[in-house]
Prior knowledge:
Elements (H helix, E strand, L loop, with lengths): L2 H6 L3 H16 L8 H13 L3 E6 L3 E8 L4 E7 L18 E3 L5 E3 L6 H17 L6 E8 L7 H7 L2 H4 L5 E11 L3 E3 L2 E4 L1 E10 L3 E2 L9 H19 L6 E10 L5 E2 L2 E10 L2 H22 L6 E8 L2 E3 L1 H15 L3 E3 L11 H6 L3 E9 L1 H9 L3 H4 L12 H20 L1 H7 L2
Parallel strand pairs: 3-6, 3-7, 7-18, 8-17
Antiparallel strand pairs: 1-2, 2-6, 4-5, 8-18, 9-16, 10-14, 10-15, 11-13, 12-14
Helix pairs in contact: 2-4, 4-13, 7-8, 9-13, 13-14
Bound molecules: zinc ion (2 copies).
One zinc ion binds next to loops.
Amino acid sequence: MDATAQILQHYESIRAEQEDFYKDLHQNPELSHQELRTAANVTRDMSSYGFQTQSGIGGTGVAAVLQNGHGPTVLLRADMDALPVQERTGAGYASTVTAEDQGGDRVPVMHACGHDVHVACLLGASRLLADHRDLWRGTLVALFQPAEETGDGARGMLADAFLERIPAPDVALAQHVLPGVAGHVATRHGPVLSSADSIRITVHGRGGHGSTPQNTVDPVVLAAMIVIRLQTVISREIPPTEPAVLTVGSLHAGTKSNIIPDSAVMELNLRTYTDATRQRILDSVRRIVQSECTASGSPKEPEFEIFDRFPLTVNDDASTTRVAAAFSAYFGDRAGSLELQTASEDFSDIPRAGNIPYTYWGIGGTDPETYRAAVRAHRVQEDIPANHSPMFLPVLQPTLQTGTEALVTAALAWLGRESQEAAAP
Ligand code: ZN
Ligand code: ZN
């Protein structure tokens, strides 16, 4: 039996504790940057497993390190934050929590993206690896990251010298629970998640009475022209073979029918899969907005503010090959390939900053029969609640077990005795 199978045969020894932790976390979700209770519980448990823990990194981030002899260093990452969503899953452990968001509004809070699964799985994997140190060698770094949903949690940890606080990783690994057959894992080479940018644009006119447009520069007409013209960026400037999305999600101007306002504000969302396409579209947006402002006789330069930025996630080839091989060996035909996702993640900010190869995979969280029935009926989009839905609720098992097994299996592809013997000359 190899090290992976030897360690994972002990899953039953952690199952009850892991399920309890998960249900408690699901019932007590915390918004981005507010993950105090979660971080405290994680720090307590990781310390009890024998890890050296550091908390409060970049606000609420936790790093836990276990040094176990000479060998590679593997970083495993879980995100901890929840979303302002009112849970409607009907689960016995559903959240009824509310919290104050960054704008000061009281909002419902729910683990609608499954980050509670990620935390519980990383705790479980850490405990199994700590309990069976005789079966591997090297250094394990467990990273519990805050504020993934706002796109600035990883950046905040980096700004707080995260990489200087830990041994340099040879590889960084992360996973996400997604709609799909529970018990299955899925890897992908190359681009896996899009980059995302939100852009707030303010254009200026000259306000006045609605009855005397000749004395004004109307920012409503100007904004309308920009919205239409922006539709040509993807359709006319980007190759049809290159996936990209540009959405104007918000447009605000004026207060009353007979007043021409002074300005208009629009918010755009951009998704791309290469840095070159991202830059090309950002340049086009700027060019179009500036040109339309000139065309309208706008009295003042437009203002651009980029926010909620997420980096591109591009899986490293060698690391992905190594994880995919380990998954095939352990999971057999429960290991498959992941489709390109239009969602975004800030995980890659950390490996990119440290020049660390990384790979990011998916695990299914849907009851297998329910999922297969939806596939047969071509009703996956309609019938299977996706991440961020108030109905999103991964089935408890085999989701937790599979996420735990995936982390242990992937980590041992570097830390396991066999892997190190295979890598030796
Ligand atoms: Zn999410
Ligand atoms: Zn997520």
